[in-house]
Each structure stands twice: as C-alpha cells, then as structure tokens.
Amino acid sequence: MSQATAGNVPHSRFATVQYLTCLKGILVREGLRYLNQRERFVSSLVRPLLWLFIFAAGFRQVLGVSIIPPYQTYVLYEVYITPGLCGMILLFSGMQSSLSMVYDREMGNMRTLLVSPFPRWFLLVSKLLAGVAVSIIQVYAFLFVAWLWDVKAPVQGYFLILPALFLSGMMLGALGMLLSSLVKQLENFAGIMNFVIFPMYFASSALYPLWRVQESSPLLYKICLLNPFSYAVELIRFAFYGQIEWLSLAVVCSFIVLFIAGAIIAYDPSRGIVVKKQEGGNT
Amino acid sequence: MVTNAGLKDIPGTPLPETDVPALELVSVSYSYGKRQALDDVTFSIAPGTFAVLLGLNGAGKTTLFSLISHLYATRHGHIHVFGHDIDRRPGNALRRLGIVFQARTLDLDLSIYQNLSYHASLHGIGKRDADRRIHEFMQSIDMSDRLHEKTRSLSGGQIRRVEIIRALIHRPSLLLLDEATVGLDIKSRATILADIRKLVQEKNISVLWATHLIDEVGHADQIIVLNQGRLVANGPVGEVVKDAGAQTINEAFSRLTGVLALDTGRQF
User: What band does A10 get if pLDDT is binned at 50, 70 and 90?
Assistant: First the structure.
C-alpha cells in the first residue's frame, strides 16, 4: 500500500470539473448496475407492452375517446394510452430506484455514497439524474416497439417529449427517493406497490380521459386532479404533439422541488428520518 | 490520558494539520430513543498514531464511527477531524477520512476496477489520476491481475483488502476501520493488520481501528476502551494496564468492562 501521505489534502473547495467527475461516476455506476440487471430491462419493457398489446386492444371498442386536446382527430385507444404507459415506465423506474436505494442501504453500499465529501444534496440529485437517464432509455425502447406495432406519434414528437420525460422522471424519481427514506426494510417495500404505485397509476389520466372519470365518479375525478402523476402524463401527452400544457408543467416542476427538498431533508443526518430508522440497529 | 478537549473550530481559518489532533471528540453523546449508545465520550488521536478502539459488541463502536463519518449528526458534543468540525464542515472533514465499514460495501456485481473507480469519482478524482492510483495500489497487494474480475469472485480477506485500498485512494490523513477483520481467517487478519501498521509507520497516517479482539492490540498503540457507551480508558497500552491495576491487557479489559476475557498471557 503506498501513495498515501497525511495532511496533504488542500483546503480549497471542489472545482466544477470535480463535481462533473463525481456526477459522471454516479451515472456510470447506475448504468453498469442496469446493464448487470438485464431482467430489470426486460420487465420494464414487458409491463407496458402487455398493457398496450392486450389491455388496449381489448378496450379499444369499449372505451371511445372523443376529440380532446391535444388530439385534433379521433385517435385509437392505443395511441391515447401511450403517454400514460411512458409515465408508467417512469413511475415504476422511480420506484425501482427507490427499491435499490433501500437495498443499497441494507447492504451498506449507500454509505459509500453518503460519506463522499461532496454536498449531500449534490450526491442525491446526481443519483436521481442517473436513475432518470436509465428510465428515459427504457421509455424510448418501449416507444420503438410500439412504433413497430404501428402505434405512432408525429416524428418530431419523439424528440419533443424528451424534456417532458426528464421532468416527469425527476418528479417520480424524487418521490421514490423520498419514499426510500421512509421504508426501513426491503420487505416493507411491497407496501409501496399497493399504496403508491397502483393508486397513482389508476387514479390518473393515464388510462382514460378525465372527462370520462368525471361522468362516472366526481370523487375519483377530484382525486385524479390531486394526483401529480396525472400532470406528468398530460405533460408527456401534449409534448408528443409539440404543445406545452402549462398547468401540468407548473405542477410537475413544483412537485420536483417539493420531493427533492423532502428527500434531501430525509437524508440529512441532522434532520433526516433515515437516521431515526436506525433505532434498534448497530451500536 | 491523551486529550485535547476544548479545541475550537474557527470557520474560514483551518488549523495547520500538523498542529492539531487527527481526531478529537469532545463530550460526544448519542442515543437511540431512550437507549443511550454513547455517553459523554471525550478523546483525541495524535497524527501518525495507531489507536485501537476496544469494546464488546454493543459498546458503541459502530455508533461512534457513524458519527465520525457524518452518517449520523452529532447532537451532543463536537467531533473534529484535523480541526474541521464534522457537522459544520463535513466536506473538509470527509476529505481527510478513509473509511472501512464493518459491513461489506463493495458492489459485488461490479468489477474491482469499477468499484475503485466509482469511489475515486466520489472524491472528484479524474480518470487518469484514478487509474494510476488504482494500479499502484493493486500492485502493492499483488492483485493487479484481478483488477477486472467481478468482486463477487474474491475471498472475504481479498474483499477487505480491496476495501482498504478503496479507503486510501483519495489519500486520507485518518483511516477508520470498523471491525475490519471480522469473519476472516487468522492469516488474512494478520496480513491486513500488518498492512495497516506499515501504513502508519511509512506514511504517517493516523488510524482508528475498532475491534473487540484484544489480540489485535499492539505494544505501542493507544487504546480507547468503550463499555456500554462510556469511555472507561484511554492512553498508551502500558498506562491503561497499569491504571487498571492489571498485569496484562486481557486482565485490564476484563476489569474495565466487567467481562471475563481469555488471558493469552500477553504482558505490557
């Protein structure tokens, strides 16, 4: 063992290039982990494709979609739910990242990240960005298969959705990060599935337009309006057609700030709830 | 007793590292709810010292490490690493710390190189510099040829040695090792301990070595004994044995903790 000498560390702060090095390292690690978990990629692709090929095909005749913005003509149900399925991938991916954070915490890998001398907020945001990058790749893989299935959007839409996917991914990833701080053990994560993912997905505009929900259940309609996932789906839907849904943009951005702030506080050793979860742990 | 209580951390004017303790704890307490894990712990470690933190399981060693490494916030008391307050200036303090946790923290699905490279990036070390350091360190433990193997393929002792290398890549001034030899065979334990002692001698790195194994204590070490969250002894081995009115470190440890330890007959 060599090269280490005491007291030779400069007092200056990290330079921008060092921040970028750190960010790159976190991105690369997340990418490598993803490549090592091929089943994760397959399942992330199979889930929305099942909805598209089976659910949407079956419900095409049952659920008629009238002409609502951003659509200027009648669209097939498959086309309608495609933005919702993009949102579904981001939602599951965000929760998957959350799951991996709980796993990392249990296995100790998370400590490696948290004892880095970079600011805690920077480390968490970097990890969030890495997770979002991976989930966006999953969305494009899904859209490619959907395109082969003749479920197509305007060509420019595939580029224009990128910012919407990024923002929606950030919001859902930050929610996952916040939730990971609340989950003490990996086994408890099933609760997240039942209490977060499914309600968020079904009580949204992902599967059916909100005007239809309002007709059948005013209460559910109000719940859908309170669900940030609805706004993420609408942001993506409008982006496909080169439009910005300003309310959705504002809501998604607000929740990004809210969830990230919550996650940073949760992982802050002086204020966070992660430390409190250690009660009864090692001494 | 080796103490330096009362050293003040003045923001913006870091103290010269040669004149300040490598590690200083002043009246540190910590509790998990109503259970007191650490109670008013005060001690310091001089630069270039090999200090052994000795305590039974549950004595508070891991909590102490979590506080020093800023995983937990110090709610009562102060912790300084080379004069930098861990809670007020965590970045400055963490830069000087190399940490080997009790639990394995390498990602088993990544290669050794990927693990080490990831750690280097977490300290802002660029690829070229990181690669050079990784190769040098891997050569020093004769494992260069295994650099690109999956970490999963290594033995427990090899994983520990890679973890120690990882903790050294950013050239820390203080190395913390929490039960680093737990679960290893005698040969691996001896190798790791010898490596770390060599590091202290050659590079003047300070080491805080937490263990519950008395036979890992050396003649010239500083020992800090924790018992049920309280500091019950701190100083050179000989002094601690003498103060406890004992003949051997085992006997001293038994008296200090109230637990019968196997006497290996080592005298200090």
Answer: very low
